[in-house]
Specification:
Layout lengths: L1 H6 L5 H15 L9 H16 L3 H21 L4 H10 L3 H9 L11 H10 L30 H10 L11 H9 L5 H19 L8 H4 L1 E9 L2 E8 L1 H22 L11 H12 L1
Antiparallel strand pairs: 1-2
Length: 286
């Protein structure tokens, strides 16, 4: 398992997590919009064999061809809103169902034109070198005992997966997909081992210095250009679900520390009645 390769610090650690998300993206791609479960099983078996043989370029080429054909299918179909809404509700995706009903021709995700790409690049400039005033010097007492995070285990990861919702990151696997992989009893010990691997990865991230290049795929986000109106673009990023699950595990017992450290600078950290207090403070000074 690639996550265990990263956990053990193997010679392939620098690409292990990237391999995880690339495998999810190319391995779980539906063969066509109307494919059945049997088709998915056959396709996955063949793709895993290609993956083990190192035929990554073939898998990526297959995925690109399928994705290009999906665009053609979408253009020719006019989905029944009632059926789509009912399907989303039955799957428990209430927010997605309401969002589907409220979509209009003037809103939603923009097509990636040259103008949209230019605006996205303007909103995401190249990082600047750190200024001297923002750098800390001297010894830092930042070592955290591993015992603080000892309660992070496979069961906590499973429970966090059950509470996680939302769409997927660059890998394309959403919260429902990870919920099935991590909490479904059909996979027996495979789900348990995957939960334990993610728990160990989370504890490592909390207690050890990590080479940032080894976790690029974990913290990557899928950039989506939304229509802001009047030709403007509102970019949003959707991160990987595994990252959200790990964050839920950490925040389950570190929330008080985060709230105390954030203070009034970041109300969404969990300050009780923080927004109301900010409004009253502004009213008092205006």
């Amino acid at each position: 398992m690639h996550i265990n390769d990263w956990n053990s610090g193997s010679e392939n650690q620098h690409v292990s997590l990237k391999a995880v998300f690339v495998l999810l993206a190319v391995g779980l791609q539906k063969p066509n919009p109307k494919s059945k479960a049997k088709d998915h099983q056959d396709a996955l078996s063949k793709r895993l064999a290609l993956w083990k043989d190192g035929e990554i370029s073939k898998l990526i080429r297959e995925g690109r061809i399928i994705q290009s054909r999906i665009g053609k299918f979408k253009g020719s179909n006019h989905p029944d809103k009632a059926k789509v809404f009912a399907k989303l509700v039955l799957e428990g995706q209430i927010n997605s169902a309401l969002r589907f009903l409220s979509e209009t021709s003037n809103g939603g995700v923009l097509t990636l034109t040259d103008d949209v790409m230019t605006q996205l690049k303007q909103k995401h400039p190249e990082p600047q070198p750190a200024k001297l005033g923002s750098v800390l010097f001297g010894p830092l007492n930042d070592e955290i005992p591993e015992s603080v995070y000892s309660q992070i285990n496979g069961e906590m990861v499973r429970q966090a997966a059950l509470r996680t919702k939302g769409s997927g990151g660059p890998s394309g696997v959403d919260a429902n997909g990870f919920r099935r992989m991590l909490a479904c009893k059909s996979f027996k010990q495979s789900s348990t081992r995957l939960c334990e691997a993610i728990a160990r990865m989370t504890k490592t991230l909390c207690t050890q210095y990590i080479d940032p290049t080894t976790i690029e795929a974990l913290i990557a986000s899928r950039l989506i250009p939304l229509d802001k109106g009047q030709g403007a673009v509102r970019p949003i990023g959707v991160g990987e679900v595994i990252r959200r699950i790990s964050a839920k595990c950490v925040m389950s017992f570190a929330k008080k520390d985060v709230v105390e450290a954030s203070g009034s600078l970041q109300l969404c950290a969990g300050q009780k009645s923080g927004s109301e207090a900010a409004i009253h403070a502004m009213e008092h000074h205006v």
